[in-house]
Please model this.
Amino acid sequence: MASGRRTAIVTGAGRGIGRAIALRLAQDGLNVVINDVNLDTAKSVVNEIRELGRESFAVKADVSNRREVFEMVNQVVESFGQLDVMVSNAGIAQIKPILEVTQEDLEQIFNINVNGVLFLPASRG
Model:
């Protein structure tokens, strides 16, 4: 798949801000790998990027899982020969009254919103 173009990966890119970032990077000439926990939405964005004439593929990986993030980055480098841009976009929030937020809710938010940001650049050592 290596094309000599710069390559980016965007986490949480199946919809919303991540999708917009991924499409902009593709418009700017980069190949873009789409990460999301929802593979169907990720593949939809892949199709949009390919329509722009760029290479792309989807990777289902949980950014709160260090092993999955490292494997995802290795897959990108193996496929494209390089990884130039990493966008840690994936994130969540709990939309419910504060008194209903559980410890598990808080741990999930932390794991995705903090670990997810740290694991991506750490994967390139």
